[in-house]
Amino acid sequence: MISRYTSRAVVDLQGVGMARSGKAILSGIDFTVLPGEQWLVFGPNGAGKTTMLSVVSARAHPTTGKAIILGEELGRTDVRVLRRRIGLSSPFLARQFRPNQLVEEVVMTGRKGELETWWSEYDDSDLEEATRILCSLGMGDFVGREFSTLSSGELREVQIARAIVGNPELLILDEPAAGLDLGARERLLEMMPKLLADRTSTILVTHHVEEVPPGITHGLLLSGGAVVSKGPIEESITSDTLSATFGIPLELSRSNGRMSCRLSSRDSSGSLGPASR
Ligand SMILES: Nc1ncnc2c1ncn2[C@@H]1O[C@H](COP(=O)(O)OP(=O)(O)OP(=O)(O)O)[C@@H](O)[C@H]1O
Ligand SMILES: [Mg+2]
After folding, report:
1. Atom of ligand 1 nearest to the CA of 51
2. Distance (Å, rounded) from C-alpha 85 to C-alpha 90?
3. For ligand 1, is residue 23 a contact (CB within 6 Å)?
4. pTM recorded for the entire structure
5. How far apart are CA 22 and CA 143, in angstroms?
6. What's the pLDDT tens digit per position in 166-225?
7. Which of 78, 222, 238, 250 counts the highest number of beta carbons within 10 A?
8. Which H helix or E strand runs over 135?
């Protein structure tokens, strides 16, 4: 079925499937992101979140189905041009940088969605912007350091700076808070609403609902490479959908735009206690 949103959607996956080494990793994914929507993608380890984002960020082609990103259909467009319009922070991308590249060079390559500064032409203004973003996020001390000398948490933060350089139309953050200490995590969460407000659409993956910033409007729950629920965040991410996905009784609560989740206490009938939404 052709999505009625195709023409103006930021992301439009239609029946996307992905197989790797003969194994189905994603199947029948229908996922549409409209301008102004900020999405959370949530699900257990191995659910297929990073694989789906590799399609959405134009790093991988689906095995089946159709992927239209920022109006461009994968397989019918120059992905090198498309990647310039997408900001990506992801563990699979972080592993690909040359370890002795300077931090500001890594950030600079985000502007064109590349891995090395020599892949195309960069000028002084690109370097200035990379340095300015690092300084504005409190990472001025990292300028001049080799990428491989950063701690895992620092590396995550530099990835976020790299993702927003060049003001991309679509921002994709795969586990941006993983490995951050409490202070760094809270600083990121404090900064996120502005990051979200500054761009058309964002897709965020996290393993902890506590790391979901205010401003996220929609949720997609994945399990076993398939969609469990999707839609406005209050309807798609609930005690019931999380319990079903993780196979344990969970109780989700919301307060001041933040969520938290814990094991549910069961009532005497053995059913879940009142679902907190
Ligand atoms: N090249 C590959 N060959 C075989 N299996 C693969 C390959 N790449 C990924 N997988 C498998 O696909 C599944 C989904 O991987 P993916 O990285 O997308 O999960 P994820 O939801 O991002 O998990 P996590 O929360 O742990 O990051 C995993 O079981 C993984 O082992
Ligand atoms: Mg992943």
Report:
1. 18
2. 16
3. yes
4. 0.89
5. 43
6. 889 999 999 988 888 888 888 888 888 887 877 779 999 999 999 998 889 999 999 999
7. 222
8. helix 124-136
